[in-house]
């Protein structure tokens, strides 16, 4: 009898995936109410629109690797129990008696949903398969919506950081400016770096993309971390460049630029521009691993 097969000849992995799919399906039905709230929020708020794609990406990563995963073995009990206990904590905090409401309560409910899937995966898939699919399963954490208080914290940090970098750009390009906190007084123009200009949503999307790209294309831990952490200076530089561009065009070309579509709806343009240095960094890191990549053996489907 071939390794990794039942007496009937069907691969063991198929039976494991069926059980896993059943457990995840039942768990999803049980958490249908908060998932529906999240879906409505994703359609309503741009900040959470990425949540609709997260399960698709995780499912795609699992599906494409299904023929190379190791054979099932014993359950990862320590991980399963620990994650199960954590699920119970999140579920209690997200319950009507947890003392939270609104977006905080939804965040705890989604944390419980994600850790519940992780717990079930550790117990049903077994140690080897759970370790092999750790990334696509953990990627589901991006389903958890950030509460407004957390978003405000990040927006404020990006707001002030972007103002600092914009000030350096004004100085570097010889643009006369006087700064008072978040307000810049320029020749014939006064601008304020508002919280809406923090670019938090774009930065969050870039962060998620960088996490995915680092896992898919890089092998070295510190290089993956470098790519992901580069999102912070990249986000600040993108916002500052947008501020500098709008101010310079308003002063040098047309004063109405500040009220134009480039200001109010030009975010995607600057987001696409920020992908250029990110891709260049990824390309450089990828090329630097060429020798190591060629020496990495392809995992055996029957590895335990």
Structure characterization notes:
There is one protein chain. The chain has 304 residues and is mostly helical. The chain folds into 2 domains: 12-142, no CATH class; 150-293, no CATH class. The chain is 66% helix and 4% strand. The protein has 14 helices and 3 strands. It has helices spanning 12-30, 32-44, 54-64, 77-93, 102-125, 127-132, 134-138, 148-172, 200-217, 221-229, 231-252, 261-264, 267-288, 290-295, and strands at residues 178-180, 183-186, 189-192. The chain has a 3-stranded antiparallel β-sheet, with helices on one face. A hairpin with a 2-residue loop joins β1 (178-180) and β2 (183-186). α4 (77-93) packs antiparallel against α5 (102-125), α8 packs across α11 and α9 packs antiparallel against α10 (221-229). The radius of gyration is 24 Å and the shape is globular. Mean pLDDT is 87; it is low at 1-10 and 298-304.
The helix-and-strand class reads mainly alpha
How large, in whole angstroms, is the Cα Rg? 24 Å
Percent in strands: under 5%
Strand order of the largest sheet: 1-2-3
Tell me the total number of β-strands.
3
Task: Let me know the average pLDDT.
Answer: 87
Tally of DSSP helical segments = 14
List the uncertain runs: 1-10, 298-304
Shape: globular
Task: Spell out the helices and strands N to C.
Answer: HHHHHHHHEEEHHHHHH
Q: Major sheet: size, sense and barrel closure?
A: 3 strands, antiparallel
Number of self-contained structural domains? 2
Cα distance, first to last residue? 17 Å
User: What proportion of the residues is helical, as a percent range?
Assistant: 55-70%
